[in-house]
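ARCHIVE CARD
SHELF: 3
SLOT: left
DATA:
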Amino acid sequence: MRLFVAVEIDDSNILQKIKSMQESFPFEAKPIRIDQIHFTLQFLGEINSEQIEQIKRALTTVCFSKFDLTIQNSGAFPNSNNPRVVWLGVDKDGQKKISNLANSVKQALSTINVKNDKPFKPHLTVFRIKTRIGDITNELLKFKDVEFGKQMVSQIVLKKSELSQSGPEYTNLGTVSGI
């Protein structure tokens, strides 16, 4: 099964602002469901059922203090001229803290030979784009200085992702709380 470790966004004000942003974009793209907005700390990929308990145990060794981060700014992967993903970012202090948390997760999972294939870049995916839509730089600039709000990061979640015709469905398999 496909697994990943995430920080969920649960602040209703932030989620409402994201929903409003999604509704205001004038291009054809698939918005991410509001209940699925999260930071992926580490994508684990296909994991067999025997490894799940090992992963849960390794994650319990991740020790972190709760912290706030501010959701702000927007961008696109690979770039705004040929976007495949539209994302929201975080403030500099939040970037440092969530990057440290992602590194702690990476270190904990490396003890059981679960490796991360991509460097961590803190972002919330808000759109996926399947077809070429052209340059969206001007649309992204409208959100350059917008603050979507502060999110308290108090736990990490091991999530299962099941792909379906209507999109991914996520199931929580375990959580680790900060102190």
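SLOT: right
DATA:
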Amino acid sequence: MSKPETCRFAKSHEWIHFKGHVGSVGVSEHAQKEISDVVFVELPKPGRKVAQGEACAVVESVKAAFDIYAPVAGEIAAVNEALVKDPALINREPHDGGWLFQIKADDAGLASAEALMDLKKYEQFLASGAAAH
């Protein structure tokens, strides 16, 4: 689906990878390790409009439940139904089969994605300790 090098990252550890105006969203490799064993996923409803930074999905692990935030504003275009049966895909394939949902962004949403971190900046963010939970 996507490679980390082609994604943009939010400080809340979501990644987004665009093809045109539609961006697939998932949790970073770092986040899935922190979350540990994912056992349940609550996905947003397609057609729902979300604001940038709005909690729109929940990932539950053996540790706790974690909100997943929209990295850009837009409309939920699709969800990864495979996660309903196999939520551990998030752990096994955070940048492939473990994507959570897709957002159709308008021009403003696309522009806001430019402010998100590329992989190098995200790695620096993690190394700085600012990402500690």
